[in-house]
């Protein structure tokens, strides 16, 4: 899908779940782990900058800490990004970890143009996806996003 900016709050329909490209908000999310879902329009913009977004659908009251830990472990397999280090913003890699209640699978990941979908966390394949698609996007930059 095209990479056009739309006003924050715009209802966006994507052609994949999770989305891997398309219209997005002009602001992107800070590279971090979120306890509450962030709108897809923010994290699609992260992907346009080369980020890998790790997603999960959690209905448990405790927030699925084992899944979050496994997604962090997958993020940690990505080598330190020299673009991020040179920006001096305290970012090691461009990743976002967030719950996404719109998922139709328990675990997913997305990078610009690619999606990963699974019924459970499989560390080797998730890490492989992340390493293969990291920093592969139209705007390869590491400026940190907004705290949402």
What do these coordinates show?
Strand 3 and strand 4 form a beta hairpin. The protein has one domain. 41% of the residues are buried. The chain is 26% helix and 14% strand. The model has no long low-confidence stretch (mean pLDDT 95). With 148 residues, the chain is of the alpha+beta class. The protein is globular, with a radius of gyration of 14 Å. The protein is built from 4 helices and 4 strands; from the N terminus they run H-E-H-H-E-E-E-H. The protein starts with 39 loop residues before the first helix and ends in a 15-residue tail after the last helix.
Briefly characterize the structure:
By secondary structure, the chain is of the alpha+beta class. It has helices at 40-48, 65-76, 82-87, 123-133, and strands at 52-56, 95-99, 107-111, 114-118. Strand 3 (107-111) and strand 4 form a beta hairpin.
Supply the helix-strand structural class: alpha+beta
Count of folded domains: 1
**Helix share, percent:** 25-40%
How would you sum up the major sheet? 4 strands, mixed
Strand content: 5-15%
Please tally the β strands and state the result. Answer: 4
N-end to C-end Cα span: 25 Å
- Rg calc: 14 Å
Strand order of the largest sheet: 2-1-3-4
**Could you say which overall geometry the principal axes of the C-alpha atoms support?**
globular
Low-confidence stretches: none
- Please report the number of helical segments: 4
Order of helices and strands: HEHHEEEH
Mean pLDDT: 95
